[in-house]
Design brief:
126 residues; mainly alpha; Glycoprotein, Type 4 Pilin; three-stranded antiparallel sheet; 10% strand; rod-shaped
Length: 126
């Protein structure tokens, strides 16, 4: 038996398969991007809690919270704390603002401030 048609795929079939693969890739990359953002926010939240605990430890030792960010960073550096640089997961500095001898604000802008000009605070912010 002879065939009149050539074996293989038509251009329409190939373009359909490529379009489906592109759609699936876009969905997967979108989900991966959201997972990275969620992980960074969770890490920042944990680090803010850890830094808050260190400020409280400083307060218990010296009778007041560190009065400047530099004093707090130096304290962390002296005890070889890994967060002595006070950098959040987005490469921005954690903000530390003592409001009295006993209270302070400690927060991150959440990484989105550069894109939206609206900070999404993580921690206790003013």
């Amino acid at each position: 038996m002879k065939r009149n048609k050539q074996d293989g795929f038509t251009l329409i079939e190939l373009m359909t398969v490529i379009a489906i693969i592109a759609l699936l890739a876009a969905v997967i990359l979108g989900l991966a991007g959201n997972a990275q953002k969620t992980a960074a926010r969770k890490k920042a939240t944990a680090e803010v809690e850890q830094l808050s605990g260190m400020a409280t430890e400083y307060q218990m030792k010296y009778g007041q919270v560190p009065q400047t960010k530099e004093i707090f960073s130096n304290y962390l550096d002296n005890i070889d704390h890994p967060l002595a640089t006070m950098m959040d997961p987005w490469g921005m500095s954690y903000e530390y603002d003592p409001t009295s001898r006993q209270t302070f604000y400690l927060y991150s802008y959440g990484g989105d401030v550069q894109k939206t000009n609206r900070p999404v605070y993580i921690g206790n912010a003013p």
